[in-house]
Amino acid sequence: MRALSMLAAMTLALMACGKDKPDPEPQPPVSNADEGDWEDTGPFATCGVDAASNACGSLGSFDITGCTPGQLASLDPDGVYTIHVRARTPRYGNTYAFSSQSMRLADSGDQYAGGLPLDTRQVHAGGVVFASGSFTSGTTSRRRSFIGCQSPAPNRLQGCYVDCINSRLESEGTFDAWKVTPRDGEPVSSGLELMSETAVSAGLAADVYVTKGHAYVVSLYGGLFVYDVSDPAHPRLTRNIRRTNDNYWNGVWAKDDALYIASDSRGVIVFDISTPGEPLEVRAMGTSRTNVHTVFVEGNRLFAASPAPTGEVLVYDISQPLDPQLTGTFQATGFTAATSYGPHDMFAFEGRLYVNFWRAGYVIASLQDDAAPRQLGAYRYEHSNSHASAVARYGERLIAFEGGEDWGAHLRVLDVTDAANPKRIGEYRLRQHVSIHNMVLSGTKLYVAWYHEGVRVLDVSTPESPREVAHYNTFRPDDPMRGESFYDGAIGMRVPGDGFIYAVDTSRGLLILRETP
Q1: Closest C-alpha to 224, from 256, 269, 194, 286
Q2: Closest residue by Cα to residue 477 from 109, 123, 8
Q3: Which SS3 state, helix, strand or coil, does residue 340 take?
């Protein structure tokens, strides 16, 4: 997913909570014609790549004769950028594909280009910005290079991109990059107070579950961190569990004395938390090829999103929580692993299973037969990247709040009463260059981990018109690991009903927030 720089320690910091809040982000009118999160309007810049005549990824491999570097005079290049790349891979033909990447340029400290450690950065030809990163593993070396040759707006950089493997062209194209800066006039916080900030000492914090007075945080490459949060202002680490050759843990849930962890190499790992601060591993449900990305518990059922090896949802009976039994699987109609990437997340409600099947869209299935969920319908849009959702009943209607994870990803509000014919009835957007991630619905409030935009709280009492009522900006560009990936910032969240919001940030770790009047 990314080359991680291990975080040894972070300084705890309390950020001031502002009381003033600017006007809500203007929201566009909604129609049932969903064009997707973004539109392909062609190349972002007029520069080009000639990797045949010069070393692949070098400054000389770019043709910058069409650049307009005069526009760059007012741009301060230092900062964290999110990047939309439009590139073709010759060995897969001339069709252009898109990816979301990131870059960090700074006078000191770690710098990255396309997720790789930056080793070359210079300003050339009257302001043209050149940044190149590389990474070597065994006999394979990779280099990604960006040359920014125009700046159509403040804090925006456009140019050309090349990706090289072992000095050979892998893909080339153009990019559109936006520097991540605070929204104009917005304070760090409004309606949310930071109670505590606890660094996760290894890897990258990805998800959290709160039960029995403890917060269970899973970290990519860092394992499981267990915190006693009986005093939310002073969380106390009681245990860190890591496993050799099994260290990509991305999701976590609990039922009674059982804790379930999503592992990319052993499926679902079951821990006994009868002693909450000292989990004991009971078993792993999967083989060395079973990749489980997220988990979800509803009643006596555990659902596990397994993108590999076959791209399906695994359904377990957990009437005995410490001894799950596989009862069936579910896969979207027409799903192909090569193009759809498998399920990412699930939500079960009133006899239905709602699955975010990434490129295959938002899929609705019946749970009347536990052993074999049956597809009822789906909602798809251009460049679908369905990632997370929450569902609730509003009178006679079933309403789903759905979000993707990509450039331009935002909140969609769907009427899913008729599962065979979901209809979009509302949406909520922030900035296009920042993606939504996960969400929790509690009563008439939707709590959203919105990556670089931090924690956002929306009043969804009128679901067609979500209204922001509170926020906390977790993103600080100078924090460790910022800019290493597009997936950066507030990433996971729980609202267990104890009066606090437990959020995890990819750099800052566990943040405990409290809503204020």
Answers
A1: 269
A2: 109
A3: helix
Q: Is the pLDDT of residue 129 over 50?
A: yes
Which of the four pLDDT bands, split at 50, 70 and 90, describes residue 511?
Answer: very high
Q: DSSP readout, 189-250?
A: EESEEEEEEE---SSEEEEEEEETTEEEEEEETTEEEEEE-SSTTS-EEEEEE-BTTB-BEE
Strand partners, 307: none
Of all helices (H) and strands (E), which one includes residue 498?
A: none
Helix or strand (DSSP H, E) at 168: strand 168-179
Contact of 494 with 176, CB cutoff 8 Å: no
> What pLDDT is attached to residue 4?
38
Burial category of 33 from C-beta neighbours within 10 Å (exposed 0-12, middle 13-18, buried 19 and up): exposed
Question: With 50 as the cut, is the pLDDT of residue 108 above it?
Answer: yes
Residue with the bigger pLDDT between 336 and 390: it is 390
Of 169, 192, 162, 149, nearest to 46 by C-alpha is 149
Closest CA to 233 of 511, 435, 515, 517: 511
- Percentage of the chain surpassing pLDDT 90? 70
Q: Is the dihedral of CA 219, 224, 228, 230 positive or negative?
A: positive
The three-state (H, E, C) secondary structure of 233-269, written as one string? CCCEEEEEECECCECEEEEEEEECCEEEEEECCCEEE
pLDDT in the model for residue 109? 77
With CA atoms as reference, report the closest residue to 487 among 431, 426, 435.
Answer: 435
Spatial distance between the Cα atoms of 128 and 73, rounded to a whole number of angstroms: 9
Would you say 145 and 132 are in contact if contact means Cβ atoms under 8 Å apart?
yes
What would the mean pLDDT of 70-93 be, rounded to a whole number? 87
**Closest CA relative to residue 100, chosen from 360, 489, 433:** 433
Q: Where are the alpha helices (DSSP H) in 326-466?
A: 337-340
Virtual CA dihedral for 105, 97, 140, 506, nearest 10 degrees?
50
Distance CA 442, CA 247 (A): 31
Count other Cβ atoms within 10 Å, centred on residue 155: 16
Per-residue confidence band for 242, with pLDDT thresholds at 50, 70 and 90: very high
**Interval 311-333: pLDDT, tens:** 899 999 999 999 999 999 999 88
Q: Are 348 and 303 in contact (CB under 8 A)?
A: yes
State the Cα torsion 418-419-420-426 to the nearest 10°: 70
Whole-number Å distance between alpha carbons of 156 and 434:
14
β 168-179/79-88 pair status: antiparallel
Residue 364 and residue 347 in contact, taking contact as beta carbons nearer than 8 Å: no
| Tokens of residue 20, six digits | 């003033």
Look at residue 309 and give its three-state secondary structure.
coil
Average pLDDT on 371-400 reads 92
